[in-house]
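Run log, item B.
One chain of 107 residues. Sequence copied directly from the ordering sheet:
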Amino acid sequence: MRASDHQKTIRVSDILLPIKAVPGASRDQIAGMLGERLKVRIAAAPEAGKANKAICTLIAQELGIKASSIEIHSGHTNPEKILLITDTPYDSTQALLDHLTQNLKQK
């Protein structure tokens, strides 16, 4: 079975969010944009999926959605990842990024 056989089917309403993960940070935070990717700093180490879980939890908290609505679509062992976000009130990746970066500026 190929790795691609395990990927979830993407629906039209789902959003793919490219991120740059920085594990081992002093705290969990969204650091802003890094090129076309959202830079996410995570305190958890990149071992046994701890950092990936922390990324999904942080993004879910910032968006006000369930953590189960976010999963790593690709890049499980790579700092450059793509998140698959389902059940979101945002209708586009840009609207979601606007929300995340607007909240960043208000903190």
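Observations after the first pass:
- Residues 16 and 84 are 5 Å apart (CA to CA).
- The two ends are 45 Å apart (CA to CA).
Flagged for discussion on Thursday.
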